[in-house]
Amino acid sequence: MTTKPFRIRTVTAFVTLDTLDFNDGGDLEEKIGQCSTLLREVESRLVKNGYEVQTVRIATNPFGEWLVPSVSGGDSLTADDKAVIVARVQRLNGVLAQHDINFCSLGPSIYPEHTSSICPIIVSAFPGRLSCSAVIEPCDVTASLAAAKCVKLISSMDASVDWKSLIGDGSHLAGGLGNFRFCTTSCVRSGIPFFPAAKAPSKGLGNDNCIGFALGLENGAYARQLLKEAKSIVNVKRVFSDSWKADLLPIQEICFDYVNSTKEATCLKHRIEYLGIDTSLNPSLDQGGSVARAIESLEEVKGKFGRGALAAAAAITTSLQSIPDVLTTGYCGLMLPVLEDHRLAELGTLTGSRDRLDIQKLLCISSVCGVGVDTVPVPGDSSDENLSSLMLDVAALAGRWNKQLSCRVFPVPNQKAGDTTQFDSPYLCNSHIFSLD
To answer: Mean pLDDT over all residues of the chain?
Structure first.
């Protein structure tokens, strides 16, 4: 069997939950169980065909539709409300653990009150299985300030005595790492397989009795191979269209075959739907896995992630969103997570150089690449106002160009702009702290 050109970063199942699922005799266990069965079967079929599957995940509809007592709405939460929320979080955590599901996105907050009071509960729950997001519409300062306060709170929770009963030993939050599991989203639709922006459709949209699934890739080395072959921006569309189609159609066939096999199964309470593949270029920390380095191989960029990089990002994104005969979902863009791409992290350390990567450059590229500002370390004492302004900038780009964008930043306690991060995580590399000024 030939070696596959990329890994499957995630197979993500999407399920719509309801408050009734948490009642005695409710459907929570059945829904999570069917998601787990789906994920393991798809994973098995992919592995049998030579693909490496790194994770399986579950994403739900916005948590305000099922986690919060129905009488609360977007109002301030009482102590009794919070007790119910914590109990439901712990119950869901337990069911996920029974099925060995280690990643679950609880969808976005749509109320600022929930962002500041519930998102920290979700993200902090031991052992770090749960994630969530917060919706920010363009010019919604109230929502962005609530998200900024949430980010700041999460960054300091490992040292908070008040949260010890929920966070356990706090190792999953150390050094501000809790924000790995939280982001803001703007113009984001359901069906993104990547976390923490992933969400299932809301209740009442005709999908309540459906469990969908989608795939996300890890393909930095594959990107480098294709861009070296293309050599110039002029050739990106042709090379990507031909190669992506040939390499993705076998995966699509595996997924459709699985869906067809479930249509005769009378024991399934929820029908299964394949949503597609998120074709986004997504780096790895492996040697040769940098997407930024891959882009630098193009003639117009000339080895520096500077002039020409914006044009390259636009050409690549256009190609990723127009692969013939392949069902796609999600961002389908260019992922540039600073702490997940060695070259981007390196560019963030170039003190005094015009080639140094900063937040303005990331925002500029976000205008054409379709993912957003991701895993950016910022000073631990960043003000709520500065964080809010960055989130509003991302929301403005999303709203102006109807792009699915997210913003995920890490305020690092006790570090200032220019300091070197000291993250000890298999998912992250280290860089300098980016300035928000």
So the answer is: 92
